[in-house]
Specification:
The protein is α+β, with helices and mostly antiparallel strands and about 200 residues long. The protein has one domain (about 5-200): Fumarylacetoacetate hydrolase, domain 2. It has four helices and 15 strands. A hairpin with a 2-residue loop joins strand 10 and strand 11. Bound molecules: magnesium ion.
Length: about 200
């Protein structure tokens, strides 16, 4: 399986990154070795500025290429919560030199993932999600603020990359990204319900 991540999909986050609003979806990938299902995360020694990006995640349930937007909803059946962990210092250097972001984004365990629910249990254009660190709210988002909807993202990405059952799409992060420190306890919520826990070691 593969993990596809959408960048700059919430206007306020694009602003805090001093990036222009995208006119088409920005995506990059993480390999399956990035997936982290356990609660403990060990900060790798190559970064001094590891950031959290809480994101709603789509689970692909059917293979497809060149999927039309009107049929895109048939290609994912579950929604969950994940964190797109980012070595911001390394990403900044890559951006400066115009190099790919993989070192900053695709390293081992860089994609913590929590539980999933059937998409029918949620109102897809009004999903609240939140990241708390040590009990304090740090990121708050709602799917209504997506620049590119879930269906648009699937249609766009599948023009370039075949989607397969089990693939995950991290759909972008709202504003409030920030540094994680050893000892931090992260908890992610969807509509007020706990979906994900992570302890930084
Ligand atoms: Mg992200």
């Amino acid at each position: 399986m593969k993990i596809i991540c959408i960048g700059r999909n919430y206007a306020e986050h694009a602003k805090e990154m001093k990036a222009d609003l995208p006119t088409e979806p920005v995506f990059f990938m993480k390999p399956d070795t990035a997936l982290l299902k356990e609660e403990d995360f060990y900060i790798p020694d190559f970064t001094k500025d590891l950031h959290h990006e809480i994101e709603l995640v789509l689970k692909i349930c059917k293979a497809g290429k060149h999927i039309e937007e009107q049929f895109a909803h048939k290609y994912y059946d579950e929604i969950g919560l994940g964190i797109d962990l980012t070595a911001r210092d390394i990403q900044a250097k890559c951006k400066e030199k115009g190099l790919p972001w993989e070192k900053a984004k695709a390293f081992d365990n860089s994609a913590p993932i929590g539980k999933f629910v059937k998409k029918e249990t949620l109102q897809l254009n009004n999903i609240n999600f939140e990241l708390k660190i040590n009990g304090q709210s740090r990121q708050l988002g709602n799917s209504k603020d997506l620049i590119f909807s879930f269906d648009k993202v699937i249609a766009y990405v599948s023009k370039f990359v075949t989607l397969k059952t089990g693939d995950l799409i991290y759909t972008g992060t709202p504003e409030g990204v920030g540094q994680m420190k050893i000892g931090d306890k992260l908890e992610g919520f969807v509509n007020g319900q706990s979906f994900l826990k992570l302890t930084v070691k």
